[in-house]
Amino acid sequence: MQSHLILDWKGEKIKSMVHNKIKYTAVPVEAENASSKKTFCAYLASHLTKKNISAFVCILILSTAFVLVACIGGNFQSKVCTNNKSMQFTPKPQNRLHYPKNLKIAHSKRRLPHCIIIGVRKGGTRALLQFLKIHPDVQVSPDEIHFFDNNENYSKGVEWYRRRMPQSFEEQITIEKSPNYFVDWNTPSRVKLMNSSIKLLLIVKDPFYRAVSDYAQIKENRIDKNMEMEEFEDLAIDSMTGNVRINYKAINRSLYYIHTKRWLKYFPLEQIHIVDGDNLVLHPFEELEKVETFLGLRHYIQEDHFVFDRKKGFYCINRENGAHKCLNRTKGRPHPKIDPDVVDQLNEFFEPYNQKFFKLVNKTFQWPKAVGKRSIKKKN
Questions:
Q1: Is 327 helix (H, G, I), strand (E, B) or coil?
Q2: 3-state DSSP: the chain helix, strand, coil percent, rounded to 5?
C-alpha cells in the first residue's frame, strides 16, 4: 500500500492520492503556525495565575535588591556598580550612625586610631567613649583591643590592630580605648612607633575614690566566681608596718604623676588632654566640649544630649526618640565603706603625688572631693 502527496506550496495547489481509503492531507505552513500560536497562548493562559505572577514580581524585586546591596557594600564589581553613575550610592555619616564590625560600607575603610583613650581605669573611660559616640564625626572601637600592652597581640602586627578598628569615612576620626595602657611600661614607646603625632585622652578622678572603685570591681568579679577577697584596708595598708602598700595595683594606678611622667618622655603635653572624670559625672557637656576642641571636631554635642537618671545617679544619653541610653549595671556599683582613719591616711599619702601631677600637666583638681565621702564609714 503506497500513498503519494504532490504539493505545490508556491501556488498553494494540493493534489492528494488516496489508496485503500486512507487520506493524507497537507496543511499549509501558515495554518500550522497559527495553530501552534493558539496552543502556546492557551498554555500560558492556563499557567499564568495571580499566584505565579506575584512570585515572579517578588523574585524580580529581590534580585534588584541584591544588586543594589552588593553595589553599596562594594562586593559586586561589575559595570552596573562601577560605570553607571546612577547606581552609585555614597552613604553620608549620620548622627548616631555606627556600623557593625563586619559590615562593609562603600567609601569607608578601617583606619588606625587618630586618638587613644589611654586611661585611667575606673576613671570614666567607658562613659567618655559612649558620650563621644554622639558625635557624627567619630567612630569608636567597641572593644578594648589591648594591642600595645599585650605582647601576644602586639606580635601580630599593626595590620592586625587596624583590622580591629571600626569602619570610618575619610572625614571621621577613629578612637580606641584600653585603660591599662596608662600604667603599662611598654605602651608609650609602642604607640609612638605607630604614630608619633597621635592624640591621647587621659581621664582622672579623685585618687582615693578611684582606688576604692577599682577594688569594688575586682571584688564583685571574684564574688561572681565564688572566690573570697580581703578587705580594702588590709590590701591597701601593710599590717606589719602600717604603711601604704604602693605596689597594690589599686593604689599604684592612682599615682597619676608617676605614669604621666613616663608618657611625657615620648609625647609632648600638647598631645595629651586631661579629662576631669569627677566633672564628667556632674557636667558631661562641659568636658565633652573641651574634648571636641582638643580633637579638632566641630562643636556638635549639646547639653540636651544628656539627661540625669535619678535612679542610677548619673547622666545618660538622651536619644531623639526620648529613650535613655545608660551605661550597663556595673557602672555606679556601690562602694564598700572604708575605715575613716584609712581614708585620711590614703588622702595624705596621695597629696604630694597629686601636687606633682598638677604641676606636671599645668592643671589643678580639687582632691579629695566630697564625692569620696560616700565610701567612708561613720565613726562610732
A1: coil
A2: 45, 15, 40
Using one digit for the tens of pLDDT, what is the confidence trace for 329-344? 556 667 899 999 999 9
Residues 157 and 73 in one domain: no
Question: Could you tell me the three cell numbers for 187?
Answer: 605602651
Q: What is the spatial distance between Cα 164 and Cα 187, in angstroms, rounded to a whole number? A: 18
Q: Note the pLDDT of residue 50.
A: 57
Rounded to 5 degrees, φ, ψ at 238 are -75, 120
The cell numbers describing 45, all together, are 493562559
Q: What angle do CA 159, 164, 169 make, to 5 degrees?
A: 95
The model's pLDDT over 6-19, given as tens digits with 9 standing for 90+, comes to 444 444 444 444 44
- Whether residue 190 is found in the same domain as residue 153: yes
Q: What is the pLDDT of residues 27-58, one digit of tens each?
A: 444 444 444 445 555 555 555 565 566 766 67
CB-CB contact of 68 with 38 (8 Å): no
Cβ contact 135:292 at 8 Å: yes
C-alpha cell at 65: 535588591
Question: Are 113 and 81 members of one domain?
Answer: no
